[in-house]
Structures
1.
Amino acid sequence: MTAVVAARRSGLGAISINPVAKIAAALVIALTLAFSLDVVSASVALALELVLLPFAGLSWGAFWRRTAAVWIAAPLAGLTVVLYGRPSGQVFVTWWFVQVSEGSLHLALATLLRVLAIALPAVVLFATVDATALADGLAQLLHLPARFVLGALAALRLLGLMRDDWRALALARRARGVGDRGRLRRFAGLAFALFVLSIRRGTALATAMEARGFGGSTARSWARPSRFGAREVLLIVVAGAIAAVAVTAAVVTGQWVLGGR
Amino acid sequence: MRSGPDVSPPAAVRARGWGWRHAGRRAWALLDLDLAVEPGERVLLLGPSGAGKSTLLAALAGVLGGDDDGDSSGILTVDGRDPRAARGSVGLVLQDPDSQVIMSRVGDDVAFGCENLGVPRDELWARVREALELVGLDVPLDHPTEALSGGQKQRLALAGALAMRPGLLLLDEPTANIDPDGVLEVRDAVGAVLARTGATAIIVEHRVEAWLDVVDRVVVLGSDGTLMADGEPRAVLAAHGDALAAAGVWVPGREPRIARRDGPAERPALLTAEGLSLARVPGSPLAATVSSPLEVRVAAGEVLALTGPNGSGKTTLALTLGGLLAPFAGEVRAEPPLAAGADPHPIRMRSRELLTRIGTVFQTPEHQFLTSTAREELALGPRTLRLDPAVVDQRVDELLDRLGLDALADANPFTLSGGQKRRLSVGAVLATRPRVLVLDEPTFGQDAVTWAALVELLEELRSVGSAVVAATHDPRFVAALGADELALSAVLA
């Protein structure tokens, strides 16, 4: 039987790496970059990441689809800083609250690069996270309460049913003659109806889980071992190295600016 | 199969003066029940809806809850133990296929119960394979549970219970919500399981015929929650057949008969469709209806049954004819006698205009409940039409009486039984007297009494010139109403 488990784990690239390690890796980079405000550390980190991302096991189509929001959000964040960032150095434009200065341009570039450097690896790593494997990891490696973790996992499965429920509820309202109401009122009604239905589904699911011995006093066994091996350690080391190189480069070039000064 | 240290031997069930009252209710769901089921017996548990069958199974499975959830009296044991302490040696399969799937992959779902029992990993996966093989679910272990049919999901639930190797297997209407092919799938799987494991079994089902060869004893609960009959299956059915049929049990040879009525003399077409292709969600068409578009004619005084296998688009066609989904291609036309001044395309009618023209009853009654009492539910449509309050009251009272819901007029629709919910959802649509009635699986999971009441009501509507369209799997329904059949073909792979 371990063959099946092994087969599931033998995916390409980072797909089959333990989700707990992925979260740790993304956190290492995010926390390091969150504590700095300079251009050098963010751009070095981003450059290193862009070299490694193709090996993450995500197809290019999936990559662009998943990261589309990041590519839109990053320039927007940068633009906001250009217009409203704390002015310093030479001021180029002043209009109402808007002041574009040398300092705000510099800070905007740093922000844009920083958002990309934090969000891209996070999105790519999370895109390949399997919810079941994540729950296994949280419970077996981090020893979060199994009751809580598995309850959340089972509830996650209800999301698909909720989408179908929402559609059916909307059609049923039209059939019952109340579909002409204003958009806001209709949405509120639908949301409440979905809430009621979801509670009922949740209760039924809880009964089914209890009937299978969930929440009993017996110590639980785990069908799928959550392993933390060389690949997991390697991923976190790589993330740590990216963070370290980025910070070192910034310090050496004299650009290191600690955030929140 | 039945070897190893963790196998529960067939269990004995004892009830002595046992009763249960749900918290907040005045009446006892079950009272003074005396019942002994010996190890290895297979019992079919019958009785009218509301007799407490599900309550008894939940209690035996140890999931009825504690003192906060209700009061109990007397003694109920599984192998001499309180059922709550015997969890894990009892397997429970419930009615609704969707609410029993716990994990997103087949193998993980079957393994779930074993994990909770602390079964070591290697033995656990051996049990999973064995259980899947026994219920005949031949899919890979990482097959997504979402992709299973209703019958497959019920077999998955059975495998999940089975992998725990219970000494007692409880099945609460395991085939009520699945199509006829699925019923036989599940019945055969249960038969194979019991033959191999020798476990004690208690099965609740309205459709007796399919289960007669699987069980060796029939126990009948009365409507007051006490024991009414008990014995060899065919002997009990022979002795109590009429009483059982009156209680809604489908007794072989005593199926309900519906008197046919004359239809109207004039039968004009009300709804027509040509070159019709369907889409469940905008933009993603059902392939089979694109390659061979549908032609539909719905006429006054006639019944059109939409039939075909799961996934062939019966529901989508019903909702499209009901003016709720836009066709992918082609058009649905409301002919002049139906349109009566409104847009001739049902999908473009206003929601309120649909009320008197096309009424749609959904497969899941909960989807269409909008108010907090049965009475309000029936009154909503007529009020939306701004009818005179006296007329509204009159229609509502008439429907409450006709549907046998008088006593439940102030009950919350969500707290009704399955049969009552179905009747209420049909009544709520009938209250505005639509000329065309569209129903999605109206007879799914209905006991014989509700079934007959529903079919009689539809036959009456048909005879006075309404048109009925029903997506259905139920050949009895098609025959009883003399319906024309529109058979949809399977989805093109």
Note: Residues 1-12 of chain A have pLDDT under 50 and may be disordered.
2.
Amino acid sequence: MGFWDRLLGRGEPPSREVARERLELVLGYDRAKISPQLLETLKDELINVISQYVEIDRDRVEISLTQDRRQGRLVASIPLRSGRRG
Amino acid sequence: MPARIVTITSGKGGVGKTTATANLGVALALLGKRVVTIDTDIGLRNLDVMLGLENRIVYDLVDVVEGRCRLHQAMIRDKRLPQLYLLPAAQTRDKTAIGPEDLVAVCENLRPDFDFLLIDSPAGIERGFQTAVAPADLVLVVTTPEVASVRDADRVIGLVEADGKGPAQLIINRIKPGLVRRGDMLSTSDVVDVLAVELIGIVPEDERILVAANRGRPVAFDQHSPAGMAFRNVARRLLGEEVPFLSLDKGESFLGRLLGRMRPSD
């Protein structure tokens, strides 16, 4: 990638950044000993369980793995369907 | 003071474990410490050639464990540095020839008479690795700034922790400051951040490593080698000294200028 491309934010990101992002992702799964597929299954089951109690926006549910030092954490964002107001 | 036992490991092969062990051995001996380097890569021994001691081997670690010789008969004294010894691996056996309890027993025998025992671990996370880590007071994990190597280092760091031998400390080997600046190599801070582990050494890529391996004379002997200086710094940190890290990541570093001056063809 040339100097001007980089200055103008065009083209591919530097391979160093790609490497770091890929590492963070793969280490998240390695450390938690779960696969991306397993996480998808977990997400589907979670949606089904929670839906029995509250109405949620199924399409916007997000489950992600984060790392705090070497401590893995599952973070779920589950938007509720807002009830009619007024 | 009884010896401190340090195991050098990596997970992935070819990242510089044996080079690191040989150089730390030399660097610690140069600082006046009595050191035994122990090659536990049974069947694939290399520490002897790195140290240039391959022609002097009579007995090896497996001979000691199986009682064919006494411990001191297998130890080779480095004529350049009388405080430095090598306990070589067997070349004709495999990694099952010695187990964790065997290596622990050998190390306990050596401990009272030395300052450092440096154990060069085989690659992988199987029995050979478990054996190499068993006697350790401290585990050093060597990685290069590449995705595959860092991933394997992470696995090993986790295993060392699970074994109750943690926290491991990290040596990042073969950093190319120019590539990092260009955005094409993970920086030391990238690697340290993702692994969340304490750093003990940053070793720049250095052609003299290759020359040193050809000659069987580790770069730690070489006052002009940047990698040699990096390994000598690790040795000083092992002794508890606060030594600032070579700055390789940002801008035109002092080392970069130095390298540029020494090797105008680069």
Note: The longest helix of chain B spans residues 147-162.
